[in-house]
Amino acid sequence: MLNIRVLLPLALLILAFPARSESPGCGELVDLAAEVRAMRDHDPASGVDRGREFLAQAGEDCPTGEMLLHSAIASNLHILGRSEAAVEAVDAALSLIGETDDPVQSAAVRRTAGVIYWEVGAHDRALEQYLAALEASRAAGDVAGAARAAGNIGNLHNSMGNWEEARDYHRQALSGFEEIGWQEGVAGTLVNLGALSARIAETLEQAGETSEANAEHEANLEYNRRALDIFEEIGNPRGIAYAADNIARALIHLGRVEQALEFQRRSLELRREVGDTSGIVNSLLTGAEAMLGLDRPGSALEMLDEAESIVPENNRGLLVEVLGLRTDAHERMGDFESAFRVQRRLISLNDAQAAEDLAARVEQLQQTFRAEQLEQELALQRARAEVSEQRARRQQLISTASIVSVLLLLLVLGLLYSRYRLGRRVSHTLDRAARTDPLTGLSNRRDMTEHVDRAILRRNEDNEPASLIMADIDSFKRINDTLGHQVGDQVLVHVAELIGKQVRGVDVTARWGGEEFLILLPGTREDGARCVSENLRRVIGESPPQINGRSLSLTLTFGVTEIEPGANFNDLVKRVDDAMYAGKARGKNRVVSAGEVVA
């Protein structure tokens, strides 16, 4: 019989060196990746840790499992706001796509990559992944995957302001998810449709179309209420938080602020529990907007302080929203110095974002053109193959061959016309940029010259009246010399915005020179133009810009002339310019008509 004193150390030695568990099989690795991905909705931090643990246990004979684990880790990192780490993880997943033969799983990884690339501003890479995912899902007959990709592309169009395209892709996604009965996908798409309604409402509000904007806010509210019911039914806290926050924003726009705060608080609490950093920032922004609606700017600033401290790196869009609300809060508290400092940061961020957006838009147009060209070439090849097959089988039927030839000709013409329309869309975008003053957003000299030439033609042929106004900012050189050109630019933008709010939709306003503005008033006689000028002079005098916490008094001098039959462009501009300078000579801050100068 063995001595117990010998057995005890032996047992301890065995326990100290436990047997190493075997690496999980490929099927098990795929299941583990799905488990890690699901953790992004309730515990993304633990999802990252578990994903890396499983990855360390994986063997080298399952590229599909490794690819899905990298993608799942990236998805959790994205929720946590760790953008750089998320990009590294999804890049690792994409590098394994060539080693797997599962198109459905590959498409899922590409969709995740598209979301992350778009978040960090790599719009060209995001679009490339979305299109590849959509093509792969459709080829594999994967309804769910195609619906997800369609939803991603819908969000992309929404962010670019392509409302109809966005709505079409989201409806494709909703139809696909309803077909397969995936409730989480249905709810997510309802949230996306609500976001689209919110963006459309914002545009309508800026255009002054209040009733139409409220209808879109009500649609946003209904979409998200339906989504909230589904998320609560399936127990998805992240989805509940998103829907509740969207409901709160819609209620704020509809003037039901106290009710909005109930949903905002629920959203914020859930996002804190889940650890959704970007979501926490969004909920804080909603709360700050509600506090401003209740005229509590101090409470709004407290929320904005927290939001700014946790905005994920590289997420410039969220930071812009924080700074915009912060400026509003400081102004309401009368702290114009702080408001001006924040506004300067905001202008700097917007300038950088505008440059990036322009580059991304150009790249997106090029990518779209290449994708459509490839699709057209593939369609043409399929048509040619079909014609060849018909000829081989039915060489004796000349009539049938003729019909096929005609169909092919029509297809080619259709493809050529499609390419022609695409070229026209690109040309229209570039032409519009060439006709706009980059600082004020008004028409430039080229665009105004064409409008005036058309007004002269209508005057000569149809006797339709029209008038011109030349407006010049008084003592503008002194503003530039004493306060600097940056303040001068702010003054120009301020004046341009005030003029835009006072003139009609049919009127055309251009920045004519450094501080000169030329306004064309179709259907208006000289007396009417004088009334418009007097109103602009009064409004601008009563609405000084706020510079460095103080009001900067502004006056403008106006020259007015009516377009007479037989007039030419150069004479008209000289007449209205002379009238404006006559006003300068008479003491500035006044309206002088060309008839007075002649007299």
TrEMBL record:
Spans traversing the lipid bilayer: 397-417
Residues in the signal sequence: 1-21
Family matches, as InterPro entries: Diguanylate_Cyclase, GGDEF_dom, Nucleotide_cyclase, Rev_trsase/Diguanyl_cyclase, TPR-like_helical_dom_sf, TPR_rpt
Pfam family, one: TPR_12
Cofactor requirement: Mg(2+)
Coiled coil (UniProt feature): 355-400
Name the UniProt record assigns to this protein: diguanylate cyclase
Protein's organism: Wenzhouxiangella sediminis
